[in-house]
């Protein structure tokens, strides 16, 4: 025990009426909904980078947070782990996620980075053993260090491609050693700033080859987890190649990897791509590549990736509705890829941000489960398409243009528009909230 969290004890479920801010109102981990506990539905995870590695900077100013573990030494990296695991325990989250650069000091070369990572992985392994914490996913930070400024896999310099591949291997090894359930690839710098200096075709092939190597290594090592790509349209690059779920699917198809790789979908990234979160989730479900979610909230006005903690229950209900329609998580989970506002300096802020996020997710999931169990939404949807249930309609899909023309003439087809009933459905959704 450290004194950083000032003796805040484990957060307990006290129900919607409680006035205790250090308690859950909706997240009752053991409550069973649709045959599963909320804990097993939601599979909450904390992101190491936002809560423990980020100093609170923005483009106009640097560090605002003062944390006893800040600094680039192994001793401080271990101290950081002590605080992180203490927070996981206070919150009762079962999982966490990290990049290599979040957890170990930056060394002077590849070998030193790898040694540092391995030492921390051993330290994590011991803590995970002691606490029962699990790793939702591991990943490599191939975007912060200046060596990656022109991309990792898509860099014009083959040495950076090589360094990136080698780093991914060490991060996959770390993930495997810690029993991680997924491995994530987010290509923050896999894109371009200007087409004037960019060979897009070449860069795309390099990205495809890197992904093939990752999948190949997964099979060689017998890693049972899922390989996940996390789409995002831009920021930090002007244009990122993994723009959105549909774009990633096209890329996977091109390299024959659509059955090997799934997606980790982030709320804020969906918004930046001009979509809703539920659009991205539904697209992944329909294409059979739904994997996991990064839960957060984007500011709708700023146009930046603001990574705020989620608090909009109606939005989350629609998102979890799509997650449940996809059959729920298998290896995936709900990772809080969310950070405090830079003025939220206190340790309590860190705890309460997660408590609020977990509660909002639980409330959203319960509303979504009610939508599924009641069935009225799905009934309305299937009624809307019921015309397609007949043999006559199905024949249209195997006919040709001449055949369909004949069909229209023979049956005197004269379509009659019907209401889409959108407002009624929106009212219905609100009735579950
Ligand atoms: C970066 C991205 C975040 C992503 C993570 C893991 O921190 O900002 O969205 O989930 O990397 O790849
Ligand atoms: Mn993310």
Automatic annotation (TrEMBL):
Q: Does the keyword Cell membrane apply?
A: no
Which GO terms label this protein's molecular function in UniProt? magnesium ion binding; xylose isomerase activity
UniProt remark on cofactor binding: Binds 2 magnesium ions per subunit.
Q: What is catalyzed by this enzyme? A: alpha-D-xylose = alpha-D-xylulofuranose
EC no.? 5.3.1.5
Annotated residues that bind Mg(2+) 2 are located at 266, 269, 305, 307
Against Gene3D superfamilies, the record matches this protein to: Divalent-metal-dependent TIM barrel enzymes
Entry annotated with the keyword Cytoplasm = yes
* Entry keyword set: Carbohydrate metabolism, Cytoplasm, Isomerase, Magnesium, Metal-binding, Xylose metabolism
Alphabetical GO CC annotations of the entry are: cytoplasm
Q: For the region Disordered, what residue ranges are annotated? A: 411-433
BP GO terms, sorted: D-xylose metabolic process
Q: Which residues form the active site?
A: 99, 102
Q: Superkingdom of this entry's organism? A: Bacteria
Top-level EC class as recorded in UniProt: isomerase
User: Which cofactors go with this protein?
Assistant: Mg(2+)
Q: Which residues bind Mg(2+) 1?
A: 230, 266, 294, 337
Localization in the cell: Cytoplasm
User: Assembly state and interactors?
Assistant: Homotetramer.
Q: Which NCBIfam families match?
A: PRK05474.1, xylose_isom_A
Entry-linked HAMAP family: Xylose_isom_A
Q: Which family does it belong to?
A: Belongs to the xylose isomerase family.
Protein's name according to its UniProt entry: Xylose isomerase
From what organism does this protein derive? Answer: Cognatiyoonia sediminum
Gene symbol here is xylA
